[in-house]
Specification:
Elements: H1 3-7, E1 9-12, H2 18-29, E2 33-38, H3 42-50, E3 54-57, H4 63-73, E4 78-81, H5 96-124, E5 127-132, H6 135-139, H7 145-165, E6 170-177, H8 190-198, H9 208-220, E7 228-231
Parallel strand pairs: 1-2, 1-4, 2-3, 4-5, 5-6, 6-7
Helix pairs in contact: 2-9, 4-5, 5-7
Length: about 240
């Protein structure tokens, strides 16, 4: 392990369980200093702390909370905007409050954290921001129009920010997971999961580690920016 690698600092929002925790563990194994935010699940935070991840209780849609996290950490070399909420509802049943909560966490949270990270990265003339979108942000999901819209917004934000920050040596990319075996997809019945699996060319659901390996790729390849990596087993291939 070289000194440069050992000094890198990573912040993963929503990084104490599921995809976020897999990403955190992957960076821990590389010797990075790893920080994670969580909003509610104290038990997962305690487990993350026990594994070596430093955690912060923070709602990423709260500007003051986000600012406080970055002030506490100081230098951030890599930001992974993973925190997100989902919603399965038909359009006519989706409330304004549902819509606003999705965008507050998924989009505003990504904006606030990216803005704070960029301030330090611009001074450092280096950095990496990875935004976790979704296959539904790419192709849309029936009964998930609000969620799909929030994740599609992340894709547009990623491309624009990559152009803006590239001149400062900062790379901005996104990853769009497909159906991943996490708590977020626990609402699907076995029959529904089997049906989804039949639509995936690689014939299996994804794992959090599949997404984590894509994040590591983006860390290791310093000539990739403005890209979206679909980690979905071919689900979105048309």
């Amino acid at each position: 392990m070289n000194q440069t690698t050992a000094k890198k600092t990573v912040l993963i929002t929503g990084g104490t369980r599921g995809i976020g925790k897999a990403i955190a563990i992957a960076f821990l194994k590389k010797g990075y200093a790893v920080y994670a935010t969580y909003s509610k699940d104290g038990e997962s935070a305690r487990e993350a702390e026990a594994s070596g991840i430093k955690t912060f209780l923070a709602d990423v849609s709260d500007e003051r909370a986000v600012t406080g996290v970055f002030q506490a950490i100081g230098r951030v070399d890599i930001l992974v905007n993973n925190a997100g909420v989902s919603l399965i509802k038909q359009l006519q049943d989706t409330t304004k409050e549902d819509w606003e909560r999705l965008f507050a966490v998924n989009v505003t949270g990504t904006f606030l954290c990216s803005r704070e990270a960029a301030k330090g990265m611009i001074s450092q003339k280096s950095g990496l921001i990875v935004n976790i979108s979704s296959v539904w942000g790419e192709v849309g999901g029936s009964c998930e129009s609000a969620y799909s819209a929030s994740k599609a917004a992340i894709l547009g934000f990623t491309k624009a920010l990559s152009k803006e920050l590239g001149w400062s040596g900062i790379r901005v990319n996104s990853i769009s997971p497909g159906v991943i075996e996490t708590r977020m997809n626990a609402h699907f019945s076995k029959a529904e999961l089997d049906s989804l699996t039949e639509e995936i060319p690689l014939g299996r659901l994804g794992s959090p580690e599949d997404v984590a390996s894509a994040v590591l790729f983006l860390d290791e390849n310093d000539y990739v920016t403005g890209a979206d990596i679909p980690v979905n087993g071919g689900f979105s291939v048309v």
